Amino acid sequence: MIDLHCHSNYSDGLLSPQDLLNRALDANLRLLALTDHDTVDGVLLLNQLNTSADLRIINGIELSVRWRKKDIHMVGLGLNLSDKGLHFIIEQQQLNRRQRALQISEKLEELGVDSAFLKACELAGHERIGRPHFAKVLVNENKVKDMVSAFKRFLARGRPAYVETHWIDLDTAVDCIQAAGGHSVLAHPLKYKLTQTKLLELIKEFKDLGGDGMEVVSGNTSEKESYALALIAQKMELLASSGSDFHGDKMSSTSLGRQRALPLTCRPIWQQWIA
Ligand code: AMP
Ligand code: MN
Ligand code: MN
Ligand code: MN
Questions:
Q1: How far apart are the CA of 246 and the centre of ligand 4, in A?
Q2: Which residues of 14-45 are buried (b: 16+ CB within 10 A; e: fewer)?
Q3: Number of other CB atoms surrounding residue 253 within 10 Å
Q4: Which ligand 1 atom is the nearest neighbour of the CA of 132?
Q5: pLDDT at 121
Q6: Cα(54) to centroid of ligand 3, in Å?
Q7: Positions in the chain whose pLDDT score sits under 70
Q8: What own/partner pairs with CB < 8 Å and gap ≥ 24 does 114-120 have?
Q9: Mind listing the pLDDT tens digit for each residue in 85-140?
Q10: What's the pTM value of the predicted model, to 2 decimals?
Q11: What is the rounded distance in angstroms from the CA atom of residue 225 to the CA atom of residue 233?
């Protein structure tokens, strides 16, 4: 089993890299990519921690990207972690992430939540704040009953605490991953609520820019969805990737490495790493 998409507490996940590593070893995973949002700090640590010859760490990231006013996600796999361009982009993304967090905090203040940024930082244990941290603050303050409601009422696009962010564009993201020696993968294509036409436009644009693959299975993707995505991958000549998008037991319904298998027609992007 493999997992090429998950999160640690270096972004919005709950587990430390050490805990994730233990889970991966318990689950007998052969390949694990930690793909935190706009940071590789957890991956650096994970590499130092892993001493198992049976588990291979694939250096990963999940980049936030702006495409036609939508926030989409691109996974980078097999990155050279000392690439300067990659770190430049990460720094830029983190500045924008921080700026956005402060703006979200201001909006939440107007909605009756004091010091949301500080509270989010306290929960996170760092300052790479994402919307899930604010969702937790909203739950703790009894503004909503759970994280899903926090997004629905406050944090999702079009809701009162949503803030547009200057994430990098598709072109920059593909180039950055390629320049760092990695493979670019369009993450969870069905999560963006795009019409079929727009989704195909996004995938074509990504492919034309030099994109390598797309996630055919992500988290709790259904069998039907995975077959539909496998067809698109085949038609677009994209490799197929697969990951749980695990954020921790309380945040994810699919555990590490427990996502369904790829349809047999797919060409797995990880073939190159399990020779
Ligand atoms: P951010 O990168 O700060 O915009 O946060 C994006 C993250 O928020 C995603 O990776 C998910 O972990 C989480 N997320 C996005 N939409 C929702 C939602 N509707 N309900 C729960 N979590 C969500
Ligand atoms: Mn996340
Ligand atoms: Mn994502
Ligand atoms: Mn993710």
A1: 7
A2: bbbbeebbebbeebebebbbbbbbbbbbbbbb
A3: 11
A4: 8
A5: 98
A6: 27
A7: none
A8: none
A9: 999 999 999 999 999 999 999 999 999 999 999 999 999 999 999 999 999 999 99
A10: 0.98
A11: 12
